[in-house]
Fold NADH:flavin oxidoreductase.
Amino acid sequence: MTSNDPLLQPYQLKHLTLKNRVMSTSHEPAYSEDGMPKERYRLYHAEKAKGGMALTMTAGSAIVSRDSPAAFGNLHVYDDRIVPWLAELADACHEHDCKVMIQITHLGRRTGWNKADWLPVLSASPVREPAHRAFPKTIEAWDIERIVADYASAAQRCQAAGLDGIEFESYGHLMDGFWSPATNHRDDEFGGSLDNRLRFTDMVLDAVRTAVGEKFVVGIRMVADEDFEKGLSKEEGVEIARRLANSGKVDFLNIIRGSIETDAALTKVIPVTGMRSSPHLDFAGEVRAATKFPTFHAARISDVATARHAIATGKLDMVGMTRAHIADPYIVKKVMEGREHEIRPCVGATYCLDRIYEGGEALCVHNAATGREATIPHVIAKSEGPTKKVVVVGAGAGGLEAARVAAERGHEVTVLEASSQAGGQVRLATQNPRRKELIGIIDWRLAELDRLGVEIRYDTWAEKNDVLALAPDVVIVATGGLPQNPPLTAGDNLVTSSWDIMAGSVKPAENVLLYDDNGGHQGMGAAELIANSGAKLELVSPERFFAPEMGGLNHVPYMRAFHEKGVTVTINTRLRSVRRDGNQLIAELASDFADGWRAERRVDQVVVEHGTAPLDDLYLSLKPLSKNGGAIDYERLVNGGDIFPQRNQEGGFVVFRIGDAVASRNIHAAIYDGIRFGIRI
Ligand SMILES: Cc1cc2nc3c(=O)[nH]c(=O)nc-3n(C[C@H](O)[C@H](O)[C@H](O)COP(=O)(O)O)c2cc1C
Ligand code: SF4
């Protein structure tokens, strides 16, 4: 049956038929090995292809030249060795009729000089990019010649690999560095007039077209309005789009609005949780109307309704749902099968992107299979063994995930939850209204458990005998933890935990000191609530910068609130003790750096965040009665085989614990535990 869903209509791009309107825009997940897209990279894209999307734009800023060293695992498209790897990736996606393109670029000033071959960083003019902090040299004629040639040979490699096309990255990189008055101060034939500022782009386009011919799709992901005072204006940006569309040298425009030169600016291009949905969709639609040219765009179009609206109203030809597919690669398939409500939502946590800037690989906060396709399935298969009775204690993110996976395996699952609601620390985090969308992590799992027929017993504080009464084969202890104080020489009973502030059980006082040596969202969430309550707040951290466990993009909204509310941030300082003085408290501060340095603050309230201590009584009481004594065989967890060693012949069941019931960690760790152990039951 043919569908009349606008999202599912095919799109003809030159000679290519894209089977629907949904794509993943280019993003570097940092899964590359040695600059090559090997198995992990391939499986990641192949999963999206299986999930039904029409086009995956691979890589993120694959680099065309050696003097554009990888900033976050970028592919080396300057290296001939990439051709067979790209060919394998393309074949794996083509098998599912998903078209494959790649984004290529010269990063210009958006990288570092002290990487790879230690070659100098360059740009149209020597203007430093604050985010990557390299001082670039002014690009010279011989650089331009070789980089233009590099673009052409990189494009040829992509064509030789059987890809369906390429796009140039032209926002925040070398190419648009020439376009923008903020970064181009030249007075030669590459500066000044728009014609001159487009000269480098024209040279690249000519060289690439000569190299790949007319039949190969060549597009450009371009900024059409830098949206800051000194930057490229909307008028000039749209004019560039018009000229490119009329040039006959490009086949599509992929529209960006904003600048990426600081983390704060980047969050306007790639909004994080709590920021507007689809903020630049109308703008992209304006560019499409002005150019009447194939237009693609992505920026927080996370839900199917908005994506459908983007196509139905003619704002876009192809809609990018990039993080949405990191969270759920099966979006299109679910839409086609009438299972839209089963889509795992992208909650905008931006754990994925923050990780690559911290030198890690992209991982989704609540889909632990993404990027781990070789070992963790997105679609859970039924167990071939006998149906087991599984009891999960605790309905936080990890417990719900374990219950979901065990139920998908076909087991009979019961969840026991001490409180009247599921969600644990995720629900606590959503008490910060800006992060309320995170509740999607819990709500999606509750809906899945409902679909799978799993019973959740609320208001049930499970003791050993309550669990035993259920005659389980497997017990999963997901009881989480309770907040603990940092080590203090005195005043343990005088401090308030960040949890109490988040839960609302203790109101912020007028003058507050918040000490966070955990370094994640927990302390910052409480700080944001306190700041927004109108209190005077000093945030104290022993680290070199506050909240080092969270990445740069998540840092932005907190810092925005701290600046707006006049929060004082004190780093490199420890809380040593707290004592009472009349109606107030004296917080004594110390330094790791200068022995004997002390300072004091007189405040109404001292709030502390030092992670959690595991709530493990139940686990410890069940361990001696279990077959495995709580043990997991880590070798087999990684390499295959039964992960529960037989340590007690008398034991009646298998028990293990996950998430913060083991040790204080984060949402992803709890969910990863839930699935990686759950699939082994
Ligand atoms: C991990 C990650 C890496 C990214 N790297 C790139 C990149 O190299 N080049 C690029 O043009 N966009 C990159 N992006 C931006 C995405 O293409 C997209 O524009 C952005 O995620 C907003 O769309 P979304 O809200 O649908 O995710 C990246 C995004 C993520 C999440
Ligand atoms: S980490 Fe957050 S933003 Fe990234 S894909 Fe997952 S849910 Fe979306």
Q: What stands out?
A: The longest helix spans residues 141-160.
